[in-house]
Amino acid sequence: MKLILSTHNVTLTKAIEDHIISRINKLDHFDRFAIDARVTLEHDHRKAPEKQFCCSMRLAVPGPDLFAEDFESDLYAAIDVVTKKIEQQIRKRHSKYKARKHNDAAQHKRRRQESGM
Asked: For residue 8, what is the enclosing H or E element?
C-alpha cells in the first residue's frame, strides 16, 4: 500500500513517520486490497489545547474510500484514534459483505429446495 503523508505546521520526525507506518501496516493486515493511504497531520495553535493536533486519513479501497479525522492534544493519540476509526470502518464493511454473501447463498439454497419439491 502506498502512503501519502502531508503536514501543516508540524515538523515530520522519523518517530512520527515510523508510528504512522506501523499503524498503516496494521490496517493493511485488515484490508489487503487497500490502494493507498493519505494522511494529513495539522497543528493549529489557535484552537483549544485539547484539540490542537488534527490527524485525518483517507484510505483508498475498491468502492467508496474510507475517511476518518480526529482532534487531540497529542499528535500520537490523534494518529491512534484515526487508525482505530478506519479499522472499525473496515470491519463494518467486511461484515456487511459477509452477511450479504451468506444471505444470497441462503436464498439460492431456498429456491433450489422449493423448485425440487
From this structure: strand 2-8
pLDDT of residue 117: 58
Quote the radius of gyration of the chain (alpha carbons, Å): 20
> pLDDT digits over 66-112, tens only?
999 999 999 999 999 999 999 999 999 988 888 887 777 777 777 78
Q: Which residues of 93-108 are buried (b: 16+ CB within 10 A; e: fewer)?
A: beeeeeeeeeeeeeee
Distance (Å, whole) CA 86 – CA 82: 6
Instruction: Find cell 490502494 and name the residue.
Output: 35
Strand pairing report for 36-43 and 53-60:
antiparallel
